[in-house]
Design a protein that fits this description.
Pfam families: FAD_binding_6, Fer2, Ferric_reduct
Oligomer: single chain
Subcellular location: Membrane
Keywords: 2Fe-2S, Flavoprotein, Iron, Iron-sulfur, Membrane, Metal-binding, Oxidoreductase, Transmembrane, Transmembrane helix
Shape: globular
InterPro entries: 2Fe-2S_ferredoxin-like_sf, 2Fe-2S_ferredoxin-type, 2Fe2S_fd_BS, Beta-grasp_dom_sf, Cbr1-like_FAD-bd_dom, FAD-bd_FR_type, Fe3_Rdtase_TM_dom, FNR_nucleotide-bd
Protein name: 2Fe-2S iron-sulfur cluster-binding protein
Structural class: alpha/beta
Helix content: 25-40%
Largest sheet: 6 strands, antiparallel
Number of domains: 4
Radius of gyration: 26 Å
Distance between the termini: 53 Å
CATH class of the largest domain: Mainly Alpha
């Protein structure tokens, strides 16, 4: 192990591999952001590969640094490998390598806690990856002992060229105007500008959009196509996402996106007329027309499509909307089946289209065509596929009861009453950023108490189903009473929904 030749080879091999894999991770990140690789596999798999590449590059960089210390010929002191500009050997190129290491570590750490960070901070850290690639290129050119070798120059040329070309593609894709759904020349109904410009990509930002398409897709269901008023592409979103519409009648309503996530020229929603209380759906069906502008919040996603070898989709009625987007997002080679239930075939949006496009993969069960009810437990028990379901509360209850928790993914349109039989205790809420202490009595929601105390918290449905009021928990134990996602997932990312949820601890510290 003390053979200097061994450590020399380890040092150079780990350095070159770390450089190549780090560049591959950056290129893969560009691929994800531009979505030019859609169809290779589903989004979760693509993101996992991106993270694995970044993690591997970080590990190889650590091996490279350790080998520099253990190499008896070099025997570099540890402090010279950790503190920039103090190295005796070519201090500036070495310093650039150290900076690149810290950037790579920061990117990897923020990836692991992505859901706990503000999106703008996460994006800013990840943009530093471009700086790391440049720094490593200079480091390798002036600090490496193989810089003059033909093989090294070939590797450097390929890596640098690929990075430059990828950046050019990224810039072109970012500036490209949508072509699939051009906004028609209709006079705008208002002069409200886009409100999302100050913070693009923020899932709570408000974007001004125009209705560019409207047509029925089933009895009582209309599909609306929305495009940005400013003509820019829609922010990237993933299957399972939903938006919140702020309607001129003074209400907000949530609708799942049912279009292809790869098409950034527009987004589609399907709206079921809800009688007799459906004020929002009545407006969208009877009043809203082509050219009308609406404020759109999102997209947000609490029903993401995760990587799996096989999928069983179960949709009930209008619950087909997020499922349709998931099917669109999957590559043709992915194994999946859809069971689509409805009261009558005429009321089942996209049923004919799905049957024609996908054949035997789609099974439509209309109540007016068969009296026998679907045996949900038998359907799920016959497969080991991951189950994704959206529909009525009764259907989802059956799905949850029949599916192992690790394979069960559901989205509810109506919140479950989880507070029944639950003892509501008073709690003191502390906002970390403002230092406000709010004593919340048992009969009052945490959200209401915060708002009365002047602490702003975004909200929409107020029933624990839309996820708009998602808040990070820094200390204390939340009592989850919402229906947004599984409790274990909320605890894993450290969030809760104060519109309905409470706490089992006497104090709750929130990131507000």
């Amino acid at each position: 192990m003390n053979d200097p030749h061994l450590w020399w080879y380890v040092t150079r091999a780990s350095a070159v591999l770390a450089w190549v894999i780090m560049t591959a991770a950056v290129l893969w990140g560009i691929v994800l952001s531009t979505r030019v690789f859609r169809g290779a596999d589903n989004p979760a798999w693509l993101q996992d590969l991106h993270r694995y590449l970044g993690g591997t590059a970080l590990v190889l960089t650590l091996i490279h640094m350790v080998s520099l210390v253990l190499d008896p010929w070099l025997a570099m002191p540890i402090d010279q490998l950790l503190i920039p500009l103090i190295a005796e050997y070519r201090p500036l190129p070495v310093a650039l390598g150290i900076v690149a290491f810290y950037v790579l570590a920061a990117v990897q750490v923020t990836s692991l806690v992505k859901n706990r960070l503000p999106r703008r901070l996460w994006k800013a850290v990840h943009y530093l990856s471009y700086v790391a690639v440049l720094a490593v290129a200079v480091h390798g050119a002036f600090a490496g002992t193989d810089a003059g070798a033909a093989w090294y120059q070939a590797v450097a040329t390929v890596v640098v060229t690929a990075t430059v070309l990828a950046l050019i593609v990224r810039i072109i894709m970012a500036r490209r105007r949508p072509t699939s759904a051009p906004v028609p020349a209709v006079a705008p109904t208002g002069t409200v500008p886009s409100l999302s410009e100050a913070n693009p990509g923020d899932p709570l930002a408000v974007t001004r959009m125009r209705i560019v398409g409207k047509h029925p897709v089933a009895d009582g269901i209309v599909r609306l196509r929305l495009a940005r008023v400013d003509g820019r592409p829609i922010e990237p979103w993933y299957a399972g996402a939903h938006i919140t519409l702020r309607l001129p009648v003074g209400i907000e309503r949530q609708y799942s996106l049912c279009s292809d996530p790869a098409d950034r020229g527009h987004i589609d929603i399907a709206v079921l007329r809800a009688e007799p209380t459906g004020l929002g759906s009545t407006y969208l069906h009877d009043v809203a027309g082509l050219g009308d502008e609406l404020d759109v919040i999102g997209p947000r996603n609490h029903f993401p499509l995760e990587a799996a070898h096989e999928y069983l989709f179960i949709a009930g009625g209008i619950g087909i909307t997020p499922i349709r987007a998931m099917i669109e997002a999957l590559p043709p080679s992915r194994s999946w089946r859809l069971v689509y239930l409805g009261r009558t075939r005429s009321e089942m949006a996209f049923a004919r289209e799905l049957e024609q496009r996908y054949g035997d993969r789609v099974r439509v069960i209309a109540g007016d065509e068969r009296a026998q009810r679907l045996d949900v437990a038998a359907e799920i028990g016959a497969t080991d596929a991951d189950v994704y379901a959206c529909g009525s509360s009764g259907l989802l209850d059956d799905v949850v009861a029949a599916t192992p928790v690790e394979r069960c993914h559901v989205e509810r349109f109506v919140a479950i009453d989880r507070a029944a039989g639950t003892e509501r205790a008073p709690v003191t809420v502390i906002t970390r950023r403002t230092g406000v202490r709010v004593d919340v009595p048992a009969e009052q929601s945490i959200l209401t108490a915060l708002q009365h105390a002047g602490v702003p918290v975004a909200t929409s449905c107020g029933t624990g189903v839309c996820g708009t009021c998602e808040t990070r928990v820094l200390a204390g134990t939340p009592q989850h009473l919402d229906s947004v996602m599984a409790d274990a997932d909320k605890d894993e990312i450290g969030v809760f929904y104060p519109c309905v949820s409470r706490a089992t601890s006497p104090e709750l510290v929130l990131d507000l």
